[in-house]
Design a protein that fits this description.
ATP/GTP-binding protein, mainly beta, 6-blade_b-propeller_TolB-like, globular, about 50% strand, signal
């Protein structure tokens, strides 16, 4: 699926000012938006089996016990704003069956979505890892980014272990995406890794565009990667030529979003300032 992207980036590193391929036109339509009971929403996970959307609420990043998970319907109704409480600064989410994995500052937690209980806690092997995003491989392997340690961690049995440590390539590592052999990491740079061995799949960053940095959310849209950035309110797209561009000038202020490349469903946690914290669903397609 991603061979064109890997081949193009492995062959050359895109230089500053490289001309992008012809951009497809994005069509985006809002479906619903919720701001009830949310505070600093960071990530969403979709539970198709139970017709729920889960959102993490940071409430101040630190060991404070104030963070929580909200549960909403797929049709845009808040079901339980503080569904699971007592977390610290919950950020990345990934769902596997009945388990919702949550990056919670210095540990990875597993929540049972049927009971609402925290059933497992996996402390990071580093003192201040600043755990951020969670990505789940098809075989169930769980990866977690550590923004303060330049590390991608992996859940190995009942322990969270260091998988890739590279303080330059993984500077402020944030968003993760995994599929097949590919592990894509965001952060200050976008990097490609072999998710089995941890070896780099490209010599250097995916792009050296100066306006593409501090990558938060990552998702595959069927022919390119969608990206959100910490300091840019727009949604960006990374094509197979390694060049990225904003899909529009619309300010989404999104963090770790969800996208379904089959249906075009896009769900974004958004922090718009002045107390406006919300989760918004869109229909996004390209032509």
């Amino acid at each position: 699926m991603y061979k064109a992207l890997i081949a193009a980036i492995t062959a050359i590193t895109v230089s500053i000012g490289a001309a992008p391929l012809a951009a497809e036109t994005a069509h985006i339509r809002e479906i619903w938006s919720i701001n009830e009971g949310l505070f600093e929403p960071e990530s969403v996970a979709v539970d198709e089996a139970r017709n729920y959307v889960y959102a993490s609420n940071v409430v101040g990043y630190g060991i404070n016990g104030k963070g929580y998970i909200s549960r909403m319907s797929m049709s845009g109704r808040m079901i339980e704003a503080k569904w699971i409480e007592g977390l610290n600064g919950p950020t990345g989410l990934a769902l596997s069956g009945t388990l919702l994995y949550v990056a919670d500052v210095n540990s990875l937690k597993a929540l049972n979505v049927e009971t609402g209980d925290i059933v497992a806690t996996y402390p990071a092997p580093d003192r201040e890892p600043c755990l951020n995003d969670v990505a789940l491989a098809a075989d169930g392997t769980v990866f977690v980014s550590g923004s303060c340690t330049g590390t991608i961690y992996k859940l190995d049995g009942d322990k969270l272990t260091r998988f890739i440590v590279d303080h330059e390539a993984l500077r402020f590592v944030n968003g993760l995406f995994v599929d097949g052999e590919l592990l894509l990491s965001g952060g200050w740079q976008i990097r490609l890794w072999n998710r089995f061995s941890g070896a780099p799949l490209a010599d250097g960053p995916v792009t050296r565009q100066p306006d593409v940095k501090d990558i938060d959310g990552l998702a595959w849209d069927g022919s390119a990667f969608l990206m959100s950035m910490v300091d840019d309110p727009r949604l960006w797209r990374l094509k197979a030529d390694g060049v990225a561009y904003p899909i529009s000038d619309q300010p989404f202020h999104a963090s770790d979003f969800y996208y379904d490349d089959v249906t075009g469903l896009l769900i974004m946690p958004r922090n718009l300032g002045e107390g406006d914290h919300r989760v918004t669903a869109y229909r996004l397609t390209f032509e």
